[in-house]
Amino acid sequence: MKKINFASDNYAGVHPEVMKAILTANDGPAVAYGGDDITAAAIQQFKCHLGNHAEAFFVFNGTGANVSALCAMTQSHESVICAEKAHIQVDECGAPEKIVGCKLLLVPATQGKITVEGVRTQLQRIGDQHYVQARVISISQSTEYGTVYTLDELRELSDFAKAHGLYLHMDGARLANAAASLTINLKTIVEAAGVDVLSFGGTKNGMMMGEAVVFLNPLLAKSFLYTRKQNMQLASKMRFISAQFQALFSNDLWLNNARHANTMAQHMAQGLRKIKSIQITQPVDANAIFAIMPTALIEKLKTRYHFHVWDERLSEVRLMTSFDTKVEEIADFVSHATQ
Amino acid sequence: MKKINFASDNYAGVHPEVMKAILTANDGPAVAYGGDDITAAAIQQFKCHLGNHAEAFFVFNGTGANVSALCAMTQSHESVICAEKAHIQVDECGAPEKIVGCKLLLVPATQGKITVEGVRTQLQRIGDQHYVQARVISISQSTEYGTVYTLDELRELSDFAKAHGLYLHMDGARLANAAASLTINLKTIVEAAGVDVLSFGGTKNGMMMGEAVVFLNPLLAKSFLYTRKQNMQLASKMRFISAQFQALFSNDLWLNNARHANTMAQHMAQGLRKIKSIQITQPVDANAIFAIMPTALIEKLKTRYHFHVWDERLSEVRLMTSFDTKVEEIADFVSHATQ
Amino acid sequence: MKKINFASDNYAGVHPEVMKAILTANDGPAVAYGGDDITAAAIQQFKCHLGNHAEAFFVFNGTGANVSALCAMTQSHESVICAEKAHIQVDECGAPEKIVGCKLLLVPATQGKITVEGVRTQLQRIGDQHYVQARVISISQSTEYGTVYTLDELRELSDFAKAHGLYLHMDGARLANAAASLTINLKTIVEAAGVDVLSFGGTKNGMMMGEAVVFLNPLLAKSFLYTRKQNMQLASKMRFISAQFQALFSNDLWLNNARHANTMAQHMAQGLRKIKSIQITQPVDANAIFAIMPTALIEKLKTRYHFHVWDERLSEVRLMTSFDTKVEEIADFVSHATQ
Amino acid sequence: MKKINFASDNYAGVHPEVMKAILTANDGPAVAYGGDDITAAAIQQFKCHLGNHAEAFFVFNGTGANVSALCAMTQSHESVICAEKAHIQVDECGAPEKIVGCKLLLVPATQGKITVEGVRTQLQRIGDQHYVQARVISISQSTEYGTVYTLDELRELSDFAKAHGLYLHMDGARLANAAASLTINLKTIVEAAGVDVLSFGGTKNGMMMGEAVVFLNPLLAKSFLYTRKQNMQLASKMRFISAQFQALFSNDLWLNNARHANTMAQHMAQGLRKIKSIQITQPVDANAIFAIMPTALIEKLKTRYHFHVWDERLSEVRLMTSFDTKVEEIADFVSHATQ
Question: How many CB pairs under 8 A join A and C?
């Protein structure tokens, strides 16, 4: 029997509407490297959602998006302030250090969110030639813990960034889930956060592959064409990424997919909360549930489901839902987790 | 009217069989990052074609394949000897320098092919701490000029490389076209050249996106998992790349696609050779034709066809065929080029 | 009036014996880039002190020594585990990230010393392609806090490193002070720690400029000639660095200088301990004193002495002694500190 | 017997006046990292010689100066156009590629000098994301062949650079020799060339070690303090480099040293021109003589003199003079080269 997936939203397949768009795009030859009409249209859709000044560049994956975004914002002697467990810190195999050459400065993050107080502790030694100079605050929305920054929390960080001459990078691999959670449109979120450069995720939300680096601060985009190419992120048959974004932005598919994943997470959380031996450890804002459960139970569930043990010492697991999670799969899991 | 494509084999779409494999792969969730069955099977197919010791890693694009391959072969103080117009020199926006940190040493290449005599001129100052130390010979098969190294030419380079402790990298973005041209299987070509690491192209031969870095020298693969990730080339939903390779290696699709493209190039060449004002400048071994033609003719043809002016001063153009070039398109071009 | 220096041992001048050696070395032309006799002799002296297998390479400064050493030990996807406040983390302006491309993983360090327990927490996700792979433990001896690892502490770290396949790097910018403190020779310290590569400091111990990267693990030295050059650390008139090391290793100057600095620190500590408003915060093992004192007193002393405020919030200062600190200067400081 | 040096001006020792300045600078403690008075004064002297807008930063060696200068002028996707045999291309062990990450584009250089015609051939594919974008022209004055650009030649390059939005870097490791040769002051040369950033050499002209990166375009200096530190070029006891520059700029020592070296080269050339079997191959503008001579003669002379065989196939040698070359040494060489 195939295991049921609660491991990650990137275990999911491709949404049928996205696949249909790919098939439709396969309509004979087209100009390579983004010179095609589909890419032009998809770029335009980003302007619709994020403002006319938004400039979107498509790349292959999340690492490519995050690292290339940081390349556009940071020189090697500058630093990026981020959460202790930010994806760019713990899941990119050191790509920011190798490719950007910069240092990440870490801030403890309760429930995955950093605060102005935390950032302030890393804002040190300005003008001291021996020390990396703070340049970027990078946050994930939604966070690695499935939580979502409120607009007020974003505004506070944004105000601080502006006041101290820092850029703001948003790792939006799951921005759609955050928008669905906040029931607020993308533009409002991005503006509240004063985002300079956004990594916008497609893969985890129903695409086959593809992310966008979106510049809200167009000055930073000046040489990004070259950065993308040099960072090995320029797709020759780019239309097949662009078409996926087109599908995502048609009929609110991006939102519906994210909303579904979030709803499934709520169902899961409700089910698990009724089980005494299980303790949910993070607010379930988006599409992840973190829970402590008995080791024996973990062992048992592992035979039937894909999911990650997040913290072995705590016996804490992460369960993720996605656009294709089924209600019955949630019920199945909850029922197997009961006793 | 949509222009007819002779610009590049990456203007082509996706072959229907490849697309079918993608659709089939979209069968619910699967383990991410290459832990899925399709990826395992595709890796196995590379072993079938290139030998059991061959270790294939899938990446997104040609730049990613070439640069990551060089990362595995070269330290920053070492050098890569390649043709003056090698793709890694003139079409990667300096990615090898930035990402590998190494220097490329250039060798003049008649008809795109380098020779032992050329390589020897760059084999200098061994042991001199002031000078980059030669480590890799990189060749393209087929070349940027649509020519194909013969087995004897490959063996000569291989012997030289072995004799001087150099690795051999083959940029095989169009290796299929070379194999079709030589009517020799992949393994024989790769062995003749004594290839240590191969960049094997999929995109230009009917795939949507995806290339493979294949290690024939397994020692060099030791830390490549990390290199691929750090180079932003690790696809989360990797099965959708792997499935394309599976399709390519089924029913000889890789060979048939390449053979078709080559045949179309032969047709084109035959047609153009009859036109007095046009002079074909390179042997047409694979799927590219280089030709000098009157500027006015170029201007006229540009309105109806996509193609690249290769050398403005010489009034030389490059015409490329691909798996989906149609006989009628060749006829159309030749007829419009005639008067 | 010139302020008295307690700011750093690199505010000190050049020891007269070192200067004499420089003058003596200025004896007409000599082969450049380390091909001279003085360099050969100085390299030999390192063998005398550290064992016949020790291979020393001279570089310009501490950043150059540390970063080049790490280049020899680490690939970009690997990590260096070090103290939270290690010099390579907080005082090299991100040079390890830019030049080596690797990530530093931080360990809390009471009194500047890391422990096996701390290192163990960073030994994570071995074999996980998404995460940097631990490769090096880097310690400073003496530490940034003027403390000195005991032989037992070193052995414990060494055993752990060997057991887990990690290299050990010692930042010995002040190794002489550690040796003087422990009254143990250099070889014993380095062997206890199982050092693979040592950054051996000259500048802070009476030289004008110059440090050595010393390989106790000769395999790691294989391409270091090129690394040094590429890292811009190859002195053309190298004999003038080598001569300084010769002087340092003659008549135990290295030890006497360090011993003097340490003794002065002891005097200072004794004096300050008698002052009620001052609290010494770290063991005074080598040539630094960390002390909390009233802000007003700091302000007053700043007008007469050079020294650094280490932690503004705590009102903690760092006082450093060096080979040329005078007993009267200590007395002067203590008397002025006694309001 | 010690061989006589015609190998390089960096085989020379330290000029007595420079050594005296070092001794004088050793006057007790002083603020580290360039915060001292001597450094301030030496920076001021650069303003005297090069204009009040000139901002000088001292570094350790020529590689450090050149590479750090390029770091300030170039992003990794940009290129540096230079002579085929420029020092940055053939004698820095690939440091520009590793540290700057950029590509060097080579221009043939008769007598070591590049021309506008040459540079123009490398000014390609502006705005093409696949290709490195030209950003800097780098020239050496005097050149690797001991020749010197005239003011008119410099102006032509400068005009071209300005017209095409390129920066101009001058590798002035031997700028003093060029100035002596042209009998023109430094400012006029630098202004004729429209230099944006100058690497100014001290080591080859009588210093022990030390070069300056001088910004004539102050915008480029904005973050150079950090670049210097990150590039491992920040001397802690910087005054000992600064003092050397002070000595060099006192009593025209820089000019007298260079003039002497040039004069010695003229003597040498005059002597060698009388020998039938020897053919001088380059104009002797500065302090180098390139000459073809019989292999047997080379072998003989090698036993008595240090010098480099420049081109083995041509049997061409390079002879360099320096500030400390003696008339008798020239006579000795010429006499031994005769018959």
Answer: 56
Q: pLDDT tens, position by position, for chain D (339 residues)?
A: 789 999 999 999 999 999 999 999 999 999 999 999 999 999 999 999 999 999 999 999 999 999 999 999 999 999 999 999 999 999 999 999 999 999 999 999 999 999 999 999 999 999 999 999 999 999 999 999 999 999 999 999 999 999 999 999 999 999 999 999 999 999 999 999 999 999 999 999 999 999 999 999 999 999 999 999 999 999 999 999 999 999 999 999 999 999 999 999 999 999 999 999 999 999 999 999 999 999 999 999 999 999 999 999 999 999 999 999 999 999 999 999 996
Same domain, C274 and C318: yes
Rounded distance, CA C67 to CA C80, Å?
11
Q: What's the pLDDT score for residue C1?
A: 72
Chosen for mutation from B59, B223, B226, B236 (greatest number of chain C CBs closer than 10 Å) is: B226
| Other beta carbons within 10 Å of C121 | 11
Which residues in chain B have Cβ-Cβ distances shorter than 8 Å to A240?
14, 208-209
Taking CB atoms and an 8 Å cutoff, what residues of chain B touch D132?
Answer: 93-94
Is A333 in contact with A301 (CB distance < 8 Å)? yes
H/E stretch holding B179: helix B175-182
Average pLDDT of C57-83? 98
- CA-to-CA dists, residue D23 to B235, B266, C208, C257, angstroms: 62, 78, 11, 20
What is the longest distance spanned by two Cα atoms in chain C? 60
Sequence-ordered list of residues with C-beta below 8 angstroms from that of D128, at least 6 positions apart, any chain = none
Chain D partners within 8 Å of B79 (Cβ):
94
Q: Which residues of C touch A76 (CB under 8 A)?
A: 94, 97-98
CATH number of the domain bearing residue A311 = 3.90.1150.10
Tokens 């007595």 sit on residue? D16
Task: Please report the pLDDT score of residue B80 as a whole number.
Answer: 98
- Does B97 reach chain D within 8 Å, measured CB to CB? yes
Find the domain containing B301 and state its range. 4-11+253-338
Residue from the list B76, B129, B226 with its beta carbon closest to the beta carbon of C77: B226
Query: Domain boundary at B252, B281, B305, which?
Result: B252
Question: How many domains, in total, are found in chain D?
Answer: 2
ipTM: 0.97
* Confidence tier at C86 by pLDDT (50, 70, 90): very high
pTM across the whole model: 0.97
User: Residues D234, D270: one domain?
Assistant: no
Contact A245, A49 (CB under 8 A): no
Dmax over CA atoms of chain D, in Å, equals 60
Buried b (16+ CB within 10 A) or exposed e, B150-187: beebbebbbebbeeeebbbbbbbbbbbbbbbbbeeebe
Which residue does chain C place closest to A100, by CA atoms?
C98
Residues C221 and C86 in one domain: yes
Which is nearest to A35 in space by CA: B10, B64, B89, B173?
A: B10
Chain D contact probe: residue of B10, B61, B132 with most D CBs at under 10 A: B132
Smallest Cα distance from A68 to chain B, Å: 10
| B228 and B319 within one domain | no
Q: Which residues of D touch A228 (CB under 8 A)?
A: 129
Q: Which of C113, C118, C120 is nearest to C134 (CA)?
A: C120
Mean pLDDT, consecutive 10-residue segments, chain B of 339 residues? 92 98 97 98 98 98 98 98 97 98 96 97 97 98 98 98 98 98 98 98 98 98 98 98 98 98 98 97 98 97 97 96 98 93
B135 in contact with chain C, both atoms CB, cutoff 8 A = no
3-class secondary structure, A158: helix
D-proximal residues of C, 291-320, CB under 8 Å: 306
